[in-house]
Amino acid sequence: MYQKNTIKTIRWGIIGLGAIANDFASDLNRVSNTVIQGVASRSSTKAKDFAKKHKAQKFYDSYVDLLADESIDVVYIATPHHLHLEWTLKAIKAKKAVLCEKPLGLNALQVRQMMNAAKSEKVFLMEALWTRFNPTMEAVLKQLKSNPIGKLRLLKADFCFHALDQSTEHRIFNLELAGGSILDIGIYPVFLAYILFGKPQEIKAYSQFHQGGSELQTSVLLNYQDCQAQLFSSFAFRSEMKAQLYGEKGQLCIDADWFQSDSYRLLTQEGEQVYNHPKKGIGFCHEIEAVNTALRKGKTEEARWTLQNSLELIELLDEIRKQVGAIYDFE
Ligand SMILES: NC(=O)c1ccc[n+]([C@@H]2O[C@H](COP(=O)([O-])OP(=O)(O)OC[C@H]3O[C@@H](n4cnc5c(N)ncnc54)[C@H](OP(=O)(O)O)[C@@H]3O)[C@@H](O)[C@H]2O)c1
């Protein structure tokens, strides 16, 4: 007998229609059984244009109005960092599932508030750490389980791009918007060390600061029982952005840009082997599919990137920011 397709369509809303929302919306349209139900901006013209470009069903000139739309299942929050807490809490209160851009909160205190709210309202919440869902990252984590390069001794990873031509008002430098490299891009190499090795025994960090006072570049050393992670983030130059993992019997290199890579390579005594795992679209399809699947199953968390993971990651970033003195006045 013919069986009807019963896969539930997930209806997304987007809050804050900036650069990343634009990329994310393009990928939403690449995922099946998914619609952009509504988009919200502080500007109605921007919302209307964005809705037209990305085939959104509705547009709003108020974030509050989008949250009141009962036809929306899940909200993607793509505002600057300092607004993640406010809009995540409001979305949870409106009983929406939430995918919030990284960092989930500015600090552990905020992340705990968000976790508690999601738990008490029994709604789905996840930090949009898209790299965790990248097919290459999944393949690397699986490959490492078979111990291909022996005991792991060192990770070298960074995330750097040149942004010195941007004004100090730009989101990445603006202290009122929680600018600085640690929360914006340093979060990625720290995430990689955390997902590979867990919580370190010791942390040492050094930063240099931009003319407007925001933290410009930071070196971090994480010390574990038998291995170390050398991590770096900067807005002052573009780096190669490979991630190198050294073991006693070889190396594993996640090719550039490692956080959105389509491949990795193993270097052992047998030679070099390249493994290709191309991502779909810009790379956000994988986290979108993860959220869709979790919602269809009625889950409130995604097992591969839980709220506890987000909390432990922000605790590392809290310690790094504390050591270098990159604390915001409003924290
Ligand atoms: N996953 C990734 O690869 C990735 C990459 C880049 C950024 N991000 C994250 O995504 C978030 C947004 O980054 P973005 O680069 O898209 O920033 P952006 O281009 O500046 O966009 C942020 C949007 O937030 C809204 N907004 C609300 N209040 C604001 C305020 N006071 N000042 C400025 N904007 C305000 C604006 O949308 P409306 O005007 O429409 O209201 C603005 O367009 C950040 O958390 C960042 O860490 C993630």
Structure notes:
By secondary structure, the protein is α/β, with parallel strands linked by helices. It folds into 2 domains: 10-129 and 286-290, 3-Layer(aba) Sandwich (Rossmann fold); 135-278, Dihydrodipicolinate Reductase, domain 2, CATH 3.30.360. It has 9 helices and 14 strands. The chain has helices at residues 19-28, 44-53, 63-67, 84-93, 108-121, 135-144, 181-197, 285-296, 307-324, and strands at residues 10-15, 34-40, 58-60, 74-77, 97-100, 125-127, 152-160, 202-209, 215-223, 228-234, 243-247, 250-254, 263-268, 271-276. An 8-stranded mixed beta sheet has the order 8-9-10-7-11-12-13-14, with helices on one face. Strands 3-2-1-4-5-6 form a 6-stranded parallel beta sheet, sandwiched between helices. A hairpin with a 4-residue loop joins β9 and β10. The N and C termini lie far apart (61 Å). Bound molecules: NADP nicotinamide-adenine-dinucleotide phosphate. NADP nicotinamide-adenine-dinucleotide phosphate (NAP) binds next to α1.
Shape verdict: globular
Based on secondary structure, the structural category is alpha/beta
Number of domain units: 2
* Total E-strand runs: 14
CATH topology of the largest domain: Dihydrodipicolinate Reductase, domain 2
User: What gap, in angstroms, lies between the N and C termini?
Assistant: 61 Å
Corresponding CATH architecture of the largest domain: 2-Layer Sandwich
CATH class of the largest domain: Alpha Beta
In helices, the fraction of residues equals: 25-40%
